[in-house]
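Good morning C.,

I know you're traveling, so I'll keep this short. The sequence:
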Amino acid sequence: MQVMQYLNDLPANAQPDVQLVLAFAQPDAYRSRVADLRAAFPNALLAGCSSAGLIAGEQVDDFPLVATAVQFERCRISHAWVDLTDHQNDCQRAGHALAAQLPHSDLRHVLLFAEGLQVNGSALVSGMLSALPEGVLVTGGLAGDGERFGQTFVYCNEQVGSRALLAVGLYGDALQIGHGSQGGWDSFGPERLITRSEGNVLYSLDEQPALELYKRYLGEHASELPAIGLKFPLCLRGPAGKPGVVRAILAVNESDGSMTFAGDMPEGTYARLMRANFERLLDGAAGAAEHSLQSLRGSNAQLALLISCVGRRVVLGQAVEEEVEAVRATLGEQPVLCGFYSYGEISPLQDTTTCSLHNQTMTITLFGEA
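The tokens, ready to paste straight into the viewer:
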């Protein structure tokens, strides 16, 4: 496997042997450069999305475009594209249809890039797993729109979709995959029972209106919703002995007192408020990198795809590159680092092969060829 990264500039000569280009960009930049990308990589799948910040090596910024070109030696790829509106916005059904489009023979891994504001990431992942061969994992993330939460986009070749889902299938026994995901947030306040919810919309905690209760915790910061919610996510308690998941707020509804999250908020689950701990966020990034190396089982990685949450970028501020530097320090100099800040991260739960939607985590997928 050979990996080449291009920050805004592209190669002057065509690279016909490149099969995959991960293109993370501002929407206008992608539209204006897609012809240049196609000229530079005439045979490649162009795949990516909008973001809340781009990762190129150890740099984090709102770059117009970061293109990471991958030339496999023995692996091959395919892709599937679905528009949520074609499935009546039923995310589970759309996920099933997306995974069913991929050829299943010799499928080793799936990368997923999804619209970031209307999608229920939990239902999407569940639908995909129901249609994929046993043992095939899914990693990826939800597209972002900075701190604006206005509109997100997914890219596939010349297509730019605002309600789109893209799956990239990777095939062949030579493919080596490692994955890791970790947070670094502190919990505070009592656990509260989710007493009314519908999918990813939360209506009440302990029989109290969810938004009213949440605002009491935020105090003077309540007027900054939904953006301030990036700093105060909710953690859902996992089953006995199992890790929990963190959920970030996407929107609030003042008329009915509800809050919309990036993934499911199941009734009967206990939730607890979280707040940032700067040092633990950096430790979490290093921990995700360590776990990804362990799951790679001694193979060499040529590419590391980093998908971190917009909430982490907001909290870390000018020091945001320190979490990428923590990843580099753990992984070493070998893999090329690329990625983006998202509205939701998709990765197996730690120490399991159960894929899930996460929020407020650093997730890492390592790629190599044996």
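Safe travels,
E.
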